[in-house]
Amino acid sequence: MKKMITMLMIGALALSMLTGCSSETTGSVSTDGSTSMEKVIGALGEAFQNDTGISFTYNPTGSGPGIKAVQEGRCDIGLSSRDLKAEEKEAGLSGTILAYDGIAIIVNPENPVSDLSLETIAKIYTGEITNWSEVGGNDAEIVLIGREAGSGTRDGFESITDTEDACKYRQELTSTGDVITTVSQNPGAIGYASVASVKDTVKAVTVDGVAPTENNIKNGSYVVQRPFVLVTKADTALSDAAFKFFTYITSADANDIISAAGVVPAN
Fold it and tell me: Are 194 and 103 in contact (CB under 8 A)?
């Protein structure tokens, strides 16, 4: 009788362990970070969830908060629209480039200006050029719209235009969507946003005569571009679910989904 009870207990324990493993495998994966990556990570997450049954969540907080979230263990994978800084790598974080995204320079559709040089864009954002008439537009004040400190889009834009800590923003907004909406509502506004997120409510100008298309981003001729980065802890293994997601979205099989989201696959 005691032997039978013991065998039943062992069986129950084994079943419990198997159930626990199954829950781990078909559990969930959480991501946190860049608002610019919303379209591509949302498409990848939906496809992954449909294919595997593993639930996926995305918290659009911005690149800086997303990097901090993975560092503090509050999410599985951080999302950054800029390269990791040396101090972030030294703190034990690792970055894997998922895709490349162009940063569109956007104006109101009523604005007749359709092309700006990179040098002119820098002069506009540092306050050297303040009226649209100076660059072939209407006699109207240029209203500078940008992202908040810590934004990967802002970091990328300021690095490329060499305007770090020199931009004279009228408004510093907390999401890509807010920038697009604000520019769409102000005829004198100029802003910058992920190419993948640009809508027909704004107009993307060419930069030095080059349009922000996928081919031009891929071949490097459109210079205002930055990486979309997956951030993980270098010394900590991902959960089974998170590892499956990471492998899924960085495989060549995911390239069609990434391209359909308007960005250029890194693999």
Answer: yes
pLDDT digits (tens, 9 = 90+) for 59-84: 999 999 999 999 999 999 999 999 99
> Per-residue pLDDT tens for 167-179?
999 999 999 999 9
123 and 266 Cβ atoms separated by less than 8 Å: no
First to last CA, the chain: 61
28-100+226-265 is a CATH 3.40.190.10 domain: yes
* CA gap 101, 245 in Å, rounded: 21
Q: Quote the pLDDT of residue 214.
A: 86
DSSP 141: B
Pick the CATH number of 102-225 from 3.30.750.200, 3.40.190.10, 3.40.50.12780, 2.170.130.30: 3.40.190.10
Evaluate the CA torsion angle 200, 205, 211, 214 in order and state its sign.
negative
Which amino acid is it at 177?
G
Tell me the mean pLDDT in the region 27-32. Answer: 96
Q: What's this model's pTM, rounded to 2 decimal places?
A: 0.74
205: Cβ contacts below 8 Å, ≥ 6 apart: 105, 106, 107, 113, 114, 115, 116
Report residue 26's pLDDT band, with 50, 70 and 90 as the boundaries. low
Place of tokens 């209407």: 138
pLDDT at 109: 98
**Beta strands, E only, the chain:** 28-33, 55-60, 77-80, 93-107, 115-116, 143-147, 171-173, 189-194, 203-204, 206-207, 225-233, 264-265
Ranges of CATH 3.40.190.10 domains, the chain? 28-100+226-265, 102-225
